[in-house]
């Protein structure tokens, strides 16, 4: 623990692995007992330090800080290293810590009054860099450079950044006219709209007309709902429920800015560190009369690229909507989008240091105009005491909301989900009293909405919730959901509770988790869950084939050769036929269960046992479909109380090709779901099993497709086509199985129907079927669009015709 | 200049463990003042053994943390290729560390960034990039079989067998000198 408490402070601090261990420290070199020797660091070191931590100290007035850095810089103008470093650092900070951009711009503006040359050299470097970013399709960096330029609008000649924005717009129009499914054009319009407000506060009252012209043009693109939007809606309203469709980020932004334009671009939330108090009128007038600089022309490449990340339309998501008191800005104000945008960039850029990301989030109020937020850590209940013109926006809520919007972004956020978990964990560690209550309210909101949340997202919620609790002693006020324990297992709330408790146990152990739960929940943790090793069913003589099961286990334990096992297997076959059972299924069940029993001590043990028996298992699977399915059935049955272990074993069996994806999917969605009359569809671990399997298949296809596009890698087109075909048929099989559940046409449902097929249970099962279906239709569509893009990229250089892309998901539902 | 140094430290850098080890193995070779021109040819920059590392050393685990728990947490950064639990050299029981191997370098880096320094089994765990597991490294290198850090540790750590084993042993000896009857009360291992 101590290792982590010695974090280095300061602007760039927060690393934990780079301090040498104490015992290597050489005390002769560094005597800490004497009075500390004073020395002044050279100016470039001081400037670096001050720029890195700019605006971080809320007690220091911005104009003072800006002025002192600018003065330190211009006073040391003769230092060439300093001049180069200064430009580099400003540009680097602008794309690494974009919350600080307006403050950096202010430093540059003040320096411009004294040494105008600095702006020219900054612009030259910036434009060269910007052109590069445009060429690579690095649209976030493009946006961040434009934000810096926008803040410098007042020291630019002519129309400043407007020509660049106009050029971006004409590109967007071209792209959108070429394809209605284009996402780059939308991205470009988003950049324009997010740059505009900074221009308007940097150079107030000059550009209203220009802005109005531009916004009139962006309107059509911004307000057009994107073709893919329906797929990535976070909510999946139940039939009959009002389908309040979510708002796209860009549509919101357009209308928010329109409102701003109508009120003269007040934009009260944006900081204006270039405005000096009246006592500094002289400085202010020097700023006004400082020299202006020409922005070098920015060259755009002929074709623009989507860049390294696939672009998807974005939807505004908040865990604090419609509260009695507004603790986050409402979607009507531009502050929502501007603050969210800056926070999202901060979060996603700083993935390599979650501690700093969390700190910047907690300090969000430092980087926006004073009085944008209520005081930090104001309890939600006290917000209603705040009187009218004062803000009720809780900085913690705004910060946490931004992280949740990523965690709940479809199809995927930029980084692995666990990154966003870790940011929330760190934020909670840094300021527990402020953050924890906000998380609590977020959890309650999400829980209330679990029934209508997209199923992929409710699964992410289970995963985050249990992981988060595991970092904080598993403490949660379970009592408030106690009534829901008595709901049927098919209810989404009950499913959430059981799923979350299971995941908690997987990160800890049953007894520990039981102790954190109120009495009513304890029956959910069955005695089997408290056993580390499951019972071996063949230990009980009443189980068919008990003797054979024990015998095989004993043979496996002493690593007997296969010849000794074969006779026992044959005995099972004979017995099974006598009892009218499928012999292959019977022997496979006995054998697989014995392997699991022998390997029950740990995953390493079972993997070693599988490794030794993989030939027999593979042969068993190849012998018949029923036997193949029995392999997974045996795993899921043996480890039914510890589904995490079962899922890991299935993953490894897939790697060995002992199991294949279609068998896993079929077992889950047809046999097991059928045997439980659909209740399996409500089980978090069944979803996890299927989802992981599908991700394995799609991951493999992506890898193969990417490899075939590299000429030097030996993956032939046949392999690719075969894998793509297998993936499509997997998605089709899922579509068939799930739409049968969703429509209630599944045999087991019809058999079970008591009356008109509209009992609560049947409705719930149909609803689960619908939720599953939506998730995997989306996955199928995403993979198809990936294949389409890959084919497009391949076409121009190789010349061979890309395979026609057939839609994987039949639009019509097979009701058979 | 740019790109060398980020404005924020990275959490996916390896610790000083391997670079220190390398230095200790080549003692004082480059420390000749002022005569760089004589036959000291600049060494070709050694290939960084961690450049493509897919393995992580994981430390500060509880002795009671299971493989399954490690799987559960570490799979959040990618599929695990292999997991090797650190064992006491003599008892072959877990002694508080493990090696996690991923399929890709990126997964290992992500694990450094997102999991190192967070809790597993309610302990803050430490992750470090590792050039790869080799047979023999699964055993503790402390005198009594566990990890070296558990020999002389003065704080009582319930998850790691109480106070350091060497200290426990010393106390047992002292106690035996005082009169052996109460011996069993002290420093008993769980």
TrEMBL record, chain A:
Ranges annotated as biased composition (Low complexity): 802-816
Basic and acidic residues compositional bias, start-end: 24-40
Pfam families to which the protein is assigned, alphabetical: MIF4G_like, MIF4G_like_2
Region described as Disordered: spans on this chain: 1-40, 792-816
Gene Ontology BP term (one): mRNA export from nucleus
Matches recorded under InterPro entries: ARM-type_fold, CBP80, MIF4G-like_typ-1, MIF4G-like_typ-2
Gene3D superfamilies documented for this protein: 1.25.40.180
GO cellular component, one term: nuclear cap binding complex
Domain of life: Eukaryota
MIF4G-like type domain residues: 329-519, 536-784
Molecular function terms, GO-annotated: mRNA binding; RNA cap binding
Protein name per UniProt: MIF4G like-domain-containing protein
Automatic annotation (TrEMBL), chain B:
Any coiled-coil regions, as ranges: none
Gene Ontology cellular-component annotations: nuclear cap binding complex; nucleus
Molecular function GO labels: RNA cap binding
Cell location: Nucleus
Assigned keywords, A-Z: mRNA processing, mRNA splicing, Nucleus, RNA-binding
Biological process terms in GO annotation: mRNA cis splicing, via spliceosome
UniProt record similarity statement: Belongs to the RRM NCBP2 family.
Identification of the protein by name: Nuclear cap-binding protein subunit 2
